[in-house]
Design a protein that fits this description.
Distance between the termini: 40 Å
Oligomer: single chain
Radius of gyration: 17 Å
Strand order of the largest sheet: 5-2-1-6-7-11-10-12
Number of strands: 12
Largest sheet: 8 strands, mixed
Helix content: 25-40%
């Protein structure tokens, strides 16, 4: 199972590492080959997270053609309104870090991932905001950090106030720690509830909330 975890300057480390560790543990339990790669829109480089002193090294460029799963995190940083902040403070806000991510080649590559059959895109926290602000998910059901739900709606997504939202090939998690629940749900979808339970016990974590699923109407049966 090839999985690509997207990094960009100012990413939230927990958004990435929570589902990464959960999926790695599931692969261990099931003895399933998992190729988990840290990627960027630009290619291999050291990427500074939004938490001071934390960085990860991307070893490849995001390539949806080589992925079954693409995980897109949000940003970490100052959550204050930008008005009244100094220029230096403004550069450290979540809003500005998401804005800078949107100015890269990331939206185009994520659009390719969303349009590619067989690829599941998963977002954590503000990752869904990147997709919505790029105009990639109009009418799609998603969740994200509670502070960003109105923005999701403003950009045409259908914002759902839930811990995890399953809209088929687009699965999203709410706030930062929901990355664990998102990861466990992806494990349940891929490997079944028994494996998800084993991983849950390994991490001493009890999943919270319910998974909101979009049920699309089925085609009428032939008569």
């Amino acid at each position: 199972m090839p999985a690509q975890f997207v990094l960009f300057d100012g990413f939230d480390p927990l958004d990435v590492l929570a589902p990464y560790e959960v999926l790695t543990a599931a692969a261990m339990f099931t003895r399933t080959p998992l190729t988990a790669t840290f990627v960027t829109a630009e290619g291999p480089r050291e990427v500074a997270g939004g938490v001071p002193g934390v960085s990860l090294r991307a070893t490849a460029r995001l390539d949806p053609a080589r992925a079954d799963l693409v995980v897109l995190p949000g940003a970490a940083g100052d959550v204050r309104e930008e008005e009244g902040l100094t220029e230096e403070e403004r550069r450290g806000t979540v809003t500005e870090r998401l804005r800078r991510a949107l100015a890269t080649g990331l939206p185009r590559l994520m659009g390719e991932a969303l349009g590619r059959e067989g690829v599941t895109v998963a977002t954590v926290c503000g990752g869904s905001l990147i997709l919505a602000m790029a105009g990639l998910i109009p009418g799609r059901h998603v969740t994200g950090h509670h502070m960003g739900l109105d923005t999701l709606s403003a950009f045409g997504a259908v914002a759902v106030d839930a811990r995890v939202v399953d809209d088929g090939d687009l699965v999203s998690g709410a706030g930062v720690t929901s990355g664990l629940d998102l990861g466990l749900y992806l494990v349940e979808r891929e490997f079944g509830p028994h494996v998800a339970r084993d991983v849950e016990r390994l991490f001493a974590h009890e999943r919270r909330g319910v998974v909101w699923r979009e049920r699309r109407p089925s085609a009428p049966a032939a008569r």
